[in-house]
Amino acid sequence: MKYYGHSGGVLHVNLSNGRIGKEPLDISLAQKFIGGPGVGLRLLLDMLKPGIDPFSPENVLVFGTGPLLGTLVPGGGKCYLSTKYSMRASKDGKKYFISTSMLGGNRFGTMMKNAGYDHIVITGRAEKPSYLKITDEDVEICVASDIWGKDVYEAGRILRERHRGRTGNCGTWVIGRAGENLVRFALGWADDWWNAGRFAGAVAGAKNLKAVVTLGEKGIKIANRKRFMEVVEKKRQEILSRPRPLRTNGERKLLKETMVGSRKGCSGGECTCKTIHEVKEGKYKGAWWGASYYGFPSAIQAKLQLKDYFESYGEAFTLIGKMNSYGLCLVTSTNMMWFVTKLYERGVLSKEDTGGLELKTGDLDCYLALLEKIVHRQDIGAIMAEGWHPLCQRLGIDASTDYETECAITKGVDLIVDARSWPGLFGNTAQIQQGTGFSPSMGLGSVVHAKAKHTHSATYWSNTEISLADVKRDAENMGVTGEELNRIFSADSFDTGRLEKYGGEAESTYNALGICDTASYRVCGGMRDIPWLSEVYSAVTGFDITPRELLRAGERIINLEKLLNVREGFTREDDKIPPVYLQNIESPLQAGGEERYLTDWFGRRLTRQDLEGILDSYYEERGWDIQKGVPTKIKLIELGLEKFVEIVESV
Fold first, then answer.
1. Quick one: which of 333, 344, 283, 275 has its CA closest to 304?
2. Which long-range contacts (CB under 8 A, 24 or more apart) does 235-240 make?
3. Tell me: the pLDDT tens digits for 401-436?
4. What are the two backbone dihedrals, phi and then psi, of residue 75, each rounded to the nearest 5 degrees?
5. CB 110: neighbour CB atoms within 10 A?
6. How far apart are CA 542 and CA 537, in angstroms?
7. Confidence of residue 304 (pLDDT cuts 50, 70, 90)
8. Cβ-contact 384, 399 below 8 angstroms
9. What pLDDT is attached to residue 265?
10. What is the CA 137 to chain-centroid distance, rounded?
11. For the sheet containing 61-65, what is the strand order?
């Protein structure tokens, strides 16, 4: 059959025995789950044995794409990685979550589709360090001995030089030494710019898989090109006409003084969110960092108390550059370094624990040495490399209840954004401003997400930046019906739990399509437009779909992901609100001479009962069992997932 939007192929690679096979994409499966992570999770449900260790050869890595990736749709550059992740989600070490990471890119995902594959399914473990090469002509498991041990950037450069095609660079996804050494919070980098797989780099390392290379020239067919171009151009003009958010003086100073080269965005993107920055003079001349959100250096500087950021960019740049080159999650690395340094200063850790290293707050050389110990699993670094639960058990202090070190943790994951403050990166309460509070996207989203990730929606921003009317308009753009809006919104408020149900489904839909939902989302528009996306999807694939059916696919994917994790033993007990949030109900944060407590998006102080009520309303709106926090039989039948009812009946 002819495929439109989809390439039409699913590639299977067994690294243990070298078997490589291709099968046609089941188009009915693609329609039911749109594509992208939906299909990937559905494949995992069949292939992944419950209870296996993430480092087992039986674990499965699935890379893939959605039907809009690689087209001219603004932001149409997102692909995905689904697997059983390596971070321990429970103190007993028996639970590991199954989820998806999204990654952007100019080449990797597009080259995958151009080579003829919508999804790549990788199993087994190679006998020797290897990388996977996927082109129009063939698929090959290649020896990686010459790039094993090299950092992310050097390995990526070598692969791009080696496999350059007629149309330019190949796409690459590469792990660093952290992944090779099975550091549980290692990640991989796509095309040097887009990280994906927070906690998946070690899964690839356990498979002796250094990289995946993609290169293709087949192109992507569009069912109705005329209609597609008309719909896309309308949205492009709408995005370009929107006012850009004003930058702070600090942001403008950073961009002016350190940015080199041009800004980068995903293929088809409008927001060019990636930049390269370099110190141009002084002691740290030449220190650089790239690819991350430009607010990370200042957040890391504040958390680790490095030298004043705007006097010496170099320290933060040097530290981030080292973490990126090793393929380490900079969020977990930063939080862990702060945690063990404070415990060393309290006398909980000694030089014997650190291999003679004296840990000092604000000392760059100390932090760089500590990174080396993590990556090479030496001394205290060997325990840190195992993740939060083993580290806290070894030290006898739970970081998630240690108010001084301020680390919000749930499911064994330290949250990227702290709901107590804004911008809230790394829990920088010393820089607290008017916060978003325990909002749908910044608070509840992280708690109920399988991988403890916040969601993107209007409440990502505080109520000083957008209004309640903006939030309601965003919900309407997500395809929420009038009846549902009445359950969510009152004249001056909204129900946090009920709103997040739809915010999560919308984001799941965007991911399945293969688009970035953050383009212009600060003003509650841009790509966050389910009615418009249903038009684009229909024009690309030739399959007509209503906005409601499209959003329903996102709901189906979330329930599918939940089923995978319920099968691993996850219930409501695992959707835990970070203890530091609960502490903040009674103990205030000091900010700007004020005492601040945990609030909702409107700034209203919350109680423990309020938080439990938010969870109740979330499960109720989802149609899940409120006590167990799992899908009901009725909900699964409604979504066409009746085949998997037995999973929830056994809970």
1. 333
2. 235/73, 235/74, 235/527, 235/529, 235/532, 235/536, 236/74, 236/270, 238/525, 239/74, 239/270, 239/519, 239/520, 239/525, 239/526, 239/527, 240/270
3. 998 888 999 999 999 888 887 555 555 544 445 568
4. 80, 10
5. 26
6. 8
7. very high
8. no
9. 60
10. 32
11. 20-24, 9-14, 119-123, 61-65, 79-88, 96-103
Distances from the Cα of 174 to the Cα of 123, 411, 538, angstroms: 17, 26, 34
SS3 496: helix
Place of tokens 């990227």: 416
Q: Where are the beta strands (DSSP E) in 124-170?
A: 130-135, 139-143
Instruction: Give the global pTM.
Output: 0.94
17: number of Cβ within 10 Å: 9
Nearest alpha carbon to residue 156 among 198, 192, 186, 112: 192
Q: What is the DSSP string of 517-578?
A: TTTTGGGT-TT--HHHHHHHHHHHHS----HHHHHHHHHHHHHHHHHHHHHTT--GGGSPPP
**DSSP codes of every residue in 207-242:** TTEEEEEEE-------S-HHHHHHHHHHHHHHHHHS
pLDDT at position 40 is 97
Instruction: Give the three-class secondary structure for 132.
Output: strand
Q: Work out the burial of residue 257: count CB atoms within 10 Å of its CB; fewer than 13 is exposed, 13-18 middle, 19 or more buried.
A: middle
Domains of the chain: 9-215 (3.60.9.10), 246-327 (no CATH), 434-575+607-649 (1.10.599.10)
Q: Nearest-5° angle of CA 281, CA 283, CA 289?
A: 70
Determine the Cα–Cα distance for residues 488 and 497; give it in Å rounded to an integer. 9
User: Which tokens is 542 given?
Assistant: 């030739």
Pairing of strands 274-278, 194-196: unpaired
* Pairing state between β 188-190 and 194-196: antiparallel
Neighbours of 4 (CB within 10 A): 18
Tokens of residue 114, six digits: 């151009």
Rounded CA-CA distance 357/372 in Å is 11
pLDDT for residue 299: 83
For residue 242, which amino acid is it? R
Q: Which residues contact 345 (CB under 8 A, 6 or more apart)?
A: 359, 360, 361
> Please, which pLDDT band fits residue 341 given cuts at 50, 70 and 90?
very high
**Structure tokens, 177:** 């030494």
| Tokens encoding 513 | 């399509």
- Peptide bond between residue 423 and the one before it cis (omega within 30 degrees of 0): yes
Q: Are 316 and 303 in contact (CB under 8 A)?
A: no
Closest to 327 measured CA to CA, from 427, 450, 184 = 184
Q: How far is CA 599 from CA 434, 435, 462, in A?
A: 11, 8, 12
Given this model, what pLDDT does residue 429 score? 46
